[in-house]
Please model this.
Amino acid sequence: MLALGCDHGGYELMQEIIKYLDKKNIPYKNFGTHGTDSVDYPIYAKKVTTSIQDGCCDLGLLICGTGIGISVAANKENGIICALCTNTFMAKATKEHNNANILALGGRVTSTADAINIFETFYNTPFSNEKRHINRINLFNS
Model:
């Protein structure tokens, strides 16, 4: 299950991604926001990260205006590896090497087409499970 969260700056892009998810029958839980009124992105980052920590969801997608703030907020939480990606190479690398469990995007800086391509790559790329990457990930919380 995919956890979705955004603030007002990511709302419009999230709506486009939801259309894509529905078309592809990708299951998700939408933790909001549900409009363009100004909200605080850490609230939605926390909802998504909690759903992953609790095992309710496996992966997450967070969107704010630039993707920066919401990714920083998500990465404050234990067990979360959130990567702000601006292209498919980054999305592939962060899943293969970092085993990232949340993708962050910038709603004001990423086109719908690019966002969908980045998401598809992130969603469909497995972790490489290589020892060198596992060792590095283990250093994140040491």
Summary: The beta strands are 2-6, 28-30, 59-64, 82-84, 102-106. The two ends are 29 Å apart (CA to CA). The helical segments are 11-23, 41-53, 68-74, 88-98, 112-124, 131-139. The chain has a mean pLDDT of 97.
